[in-house]
Amino acid sequence: MKKLFSLILFAFVSLSLAQPNIVFSPQTIVINPIPSFGVEVFVNKDPSGDSTPTYSIGEQITIGVRVTEASYVYLFDVRSNGTIDQIIPNRMDPAGENNYLQAGETKLFPPQGARYTFSVDGPQGTDKVIAVASKEPLDTRQLADFGNNGNFASSNIGQEGFAQTLSIIIRPKPQNSWVTDTALFNVGNPPAAPRYGTISITSSPNRAEAYVDGQYIGLTPVRYGTTSGSHTVEVRASGYQTYSSSVNVPGGQTTAINATLNPVVSTGTVNFVSQPQGAQVYVDGQYIGVTPTGAVSFNAGSHQVRFVLNGYSENSYSFNVNAGSSQTISGELRALSGSLTTRSNIGGALIFIDGQQAGSVTNGTGVNSFSGLAAGNHELVVIAPGFSTHVSTVTIRGGETVEVQVTQTSLSR
Fold first, then answer.
1. Which among 183, 198, 196 has a CA at the least distance from the CA of 254?
2. DSSP structure class, residue 263
3. Number of C-alpha atoms within 13 angstroms, CB side, residue 374?
4. What's the CATH fold of domain 337-406?
5. pTM greater than the 0.90 cutoff
6. Burial readout 34-45 (b: 16 or more C-beta within 10 A, e: otherwise)
7. Each residue of 54-89: pLDDT tens digit?
8. Among 319, 325, 289, 322, CA closest to 307
9. Of 72, 100, 330, 382, which residue is least crowded by CB atoms under 10 Å?
10. Beta-bridge partners for 254
11. What's the pLDDT band for 215 if we cut at 50, 70, 90?
12. What does the pLDDT look like over 40-51, one tens digit per residue?
């Protein structure tokens, strides 16, 4: 019967101010901060890995591991007294000797039908099971060797020695070729107040930089083991505002943080005016309002504005908005001309437009045409001696022709 102790999921401590290729937890666990695939290790009392279950001394335990990509898996039981036991690979049977797992495969140790079992041995404390998955075989003889132990390799290098030696083994490996995970369990009576808890950090967008208490711990999604109590979580991504939150981490439990990052948008304001007023304003094809618009906020960068007013030619401008700037853009609108056609019944009658004589009624047809009139309202007066005077207001629209029927009656009747 093989005796085991197990795992702790720990907080990461950055090895440098820049993003390191290896980070350590406070309990000296080696972590890949930018993993390209995943490994999960768990014990039978907590398949989720979110809590720290308790086992009595002598109680049987089963350890499971799964990988998201095909890889070589190494499992180590790190006891609270610093003793290291290598769970796989082992020499007990073919299942223990073969430590290569396919993508999505889950293995349990001992496997079903094995001729051995694992039971928990003292001393009391919190143990951890560490899983290391690698795309290529690793030489782990410095971590644990079979020596005279026969079927299972072991060592007494302690937790710190284990972490330092493991870091030496995997540091030369490509960043995307290895990943680790840990699982915790208590041996004997659980502590009255568990010292450690876990923060599980996800974000939108994904693969943002995660920090706990100012320490870089990896890219989201990431699980971070730390001391129980209050901690500050920050999530950062280029082009997004930093997410920051203070969280309380209960000992022995997992606290989930889902950080939604808001894009950093640099804006400036623009006031649109026109002569004459009342023009419709479109920016980048979107209707903004009628001049004068007042201050309107736009993202920094280049934009296109278009002024539209009935009876006037449209006018377009390109403009640039700088972050924090304020500016006024004026649209100068040119009135479009229209035409007027009069149909009169008195030949020779004088025609006045806006007080200026524009012509006389054509004998015979009585039809007169006047072009080039500015869009807008105009006064039309037709005078003929002995006949009533015609006075009306005519609205000219740009590009259009307006017809007016002029009927004058004799004053001698």
1. 198
2. B
3. 9
4. Immunoglobulin-like (2.60.40)
5. no
6. bbebebbbbbee
7. 999 999 999 999 999 999 999 999 998 989 999 999
8. 289
9. 100
10. 198
11. confident
12. 999 999 998 778
pLDDT tens string 107-145: 999 998 888 899 999 888 889 999 999 999 999 999 998
Could you give phi then psi for residue 168, rounded to 5 degrees? -65, -35
Instruction: Determine if residue 136 is left, alpha or beta; phi over 0 gives left, psi from -120 to 50 gives alpha, anything else beta.
Output: beta
Amino acid at 17: L
Torsion sign across C-alpha atoms 80, 185, 254, 67: positive
For residue 284, what are its two tokens? 């980048």
Q: Which residues are CB-neighbours of 60 under 8 A, at least 6 positions away?
A: 117, 118, 119, 120
Judge contact between 396 and 380, C-beta under 8 A: no
Q: Which one, of 225, 184, 226, 228, lies nearest residue 79 by Cα?
A: 184
Q: Where do the domains of the chain lie? A: 2-191, 267-332, 337-406
Contact 293, 281 (CB under 8 A): yes
CATH topology classification for 267-332: Immunoglobulin-like (2.60.40)
Closest CA relative to residue 376, chosen from 359, 400, 341, 404: 400
Tokens of 208: 């943002």
Q: Tokens in use for 155?
A: 């060592």
What is the CATH code of the structural domain delimited by 2-191? 2.60.40.2550
Residue type, 234: E
CA distance 253 to 246: 17
- Number of Cβ within 10 Å of residue 401's Cβ equals 14
Q: What is the pLDDT of residues 310-348, one digit of tens each?
A: 878 888 999 999 988 999 999 988 888 889 999 999 999
Q: Residue 401 corresponds to which tokens in the numbers above?
A: 């022709």
Query: Cα-atom radius of gyration of the chain, to the nearest Å?
Result: 42
Is the Cβ–Cβ distance between 153 and 97 less than 8 Å? no
d(CA 336, CA 376): 9
| Domain 2-191 matches domain 337-406 at the CATH topology level | yes
In whole angstroms, give the CA distance from residue 320 to residue 318: 7
